[in-house]
Amino acid sequence: MAEFFNVLSLDEASRILKENWPQPAMELVGLKEAVGRTLAAGAIAREELPPFQRSTVDGYAVLAADVAGASETIPAFLDLAGEVMMGCEPDIELTTGQCAWIPTGGMLPRGADTVVMVEYTEKLGPDTVLITRPTAAGENVIRKGEDCRIGEEVLPGGRHLRPQDIGVLAALGMTEIPVFSSLRFGVISTGDEVVEVDAQPQIGQVRDVNSYVLGAALGRWGAKVRYYGVIVDDFSRLQDAIKTALAENDCVIISGGSSVGARDLSLAALLSFPDSQLLFHGISIKPGKPTLAVKIGSQLVIGLPGHPVSALMVLQILVGPLIADRDKGAAVLTDNVASQAGRDDFVRVRLDNSGDILKAVPVHGKSGLIRVMSEAHGFIHIPSHKQGLYKGETVTVHLF
């Protein structure tokens, strides 16, 4: 039986994949289509934000010196000079002893340097306002350019755009955004024992889970996915499928056939291409030791284990961080989890928030069991230098 060519550490395998990752083209998209895409260049502010001093509360614009020391027992009395209208530049200029009504978001009139919240004021008549609390200069005010200044990078290149990021771009008047084109992934399942989802499996056969679970994960990360069905363990048919997938995609994902058995043909088929280069075959991780990567020309092919749970886990661990930002959070481990030193272990967990603290509950199950995928909310990483984690430890949960 063949041996693994060279079992690498997780860090080394991740570095190799990153260095050989396909480089997407850049395209311009409208602001409404930009969410979930990745910025191809840093977003540079072409104007100050906000473009004028604004109030953050409803109240009265004043000079801070006029309300210094004001209290309920010794209030300040100010003359009402007018009212700030939303969307208009005030035609008021305050002088000592004056104030102006201002709504949240309104532009500060000239002369004013702070705003007193309406809760600490009382209008005594049409022209007089009583102030019962002092405010410092700049309090309850957003200064011009406080959010960002001209020439400032407000979002870095490579940022996976979230709804709140779209809001920043909208505030700056950016209607077209340079983003990376979505990478195209071809997904191939292999194995004599694998049949299509709509088929009735015979004894010894299983339905094709990998095409759907891997494609769904890639699609959720913003990739464009093409499916090439199930390819039986036949060298020429697998070779043809790989050739077609390479012609139509930036990267190809093959599940099954990456181990070292006599019928595991993926590596042999990949290396049959004249411009192929083996990047690695074997990673010191669990699950997913037989994972492989081959570069064919400028394109990348990743071979994953055949078991669905292992395949999805490796995709999450190796490919996910290269495509999209991954959500994570802290939780307290509910059980001891053993690990083998010298190997990075990844343990599926479900989150339990029924008590005072968020808990991470290990989801145990062999890699061939299907339901364990849907029972888990994420996974925890046990580094190769540790022999496990203890109950009660705070762990980082990488969310699916």
Structure description:
By secondary structure, this protein is α/β, with parallel strands linked by helices. It has four domains: 10-24 and 182-323, Molybdenum Cofactor Biosythetic Enzyme, Chain A (3-Layer(aba) Sandwich), CATH 3.40.980.10; 26-49 and 147-180, Molybdopterin biosynthesis moea protein, domain 2 (Alpha-Beta Complex); 54-142, Molybdopterin biosynthesis moeA protein, domain 3 (Beta Complex); 328-399, Beta-clip (Beta Barrel). The protein contains eight helices and 28 strands. It has helices at 10-19, 64-67, 163-171, 210-220, 235-248, 266-271, 308-323, 371-375, and strands spanning 26-30, 43-44, 54-55, 59-62, 76-83, 98-102, 114-117, 121-123, 128-131, 141-142, 153-155, 176-180, 184-190, 194-195, 206-207, 224-231, 251-255, 276-281, 285-286, 292-296, 299-304, 328-333, 337-338, 344-352, 359-362, 378-382, 388-389, 394-399. The strands form eight sheets. Strands 7-4-6-5-9-8 form a six-stranded mixed beta sheet. β20 (292-296) and β21 form a beta hairpin. α4 runs parallel beside α7 (308-323). The two termini are 35 Å apart. 35% of the residues are buried. The mean pLDDT is 92.
